[in-house]
Specification:
74 residues, three-stranded antiparallel β-sheet, 30% helix
């Protein structure tokens, strides 16, 4: 399988506040990315899937990566 890099933008609810997020991950598909977002936000912030709203998932080129950890992996 070919691994691609995706940039995900969205919001999540924590308490009474909405927070924007932008994350970059390596994955094989967009559905893979959705699962990663739900798992990571759920374990890190203790929130449910219905508290996370994914607004966009876009494939990006390696040279467009902003996240230093993802850059290091590449």
């Amino acid at each position: 399988m070919i691994t691609k890099i995706y940039r995900v933008k969205g919001t999540f609810v924590m308490g009474d506040e909405y927070h924007d997020f932008t994350k970059e991950y390596k994955a094989t598909s967009e559905s893979d990315i959705e699962q990663k977002i739900y798992e990571r936000f759920g374990s890190k912030h203790g929130i449910n899937r219905n508290q996370i709203s994914i607004e966009s998932i876009e494939e990006i080129a390696p040279e467009d990566v902003l996240d230093p950890i993802v850059k290091e992996i590449l």
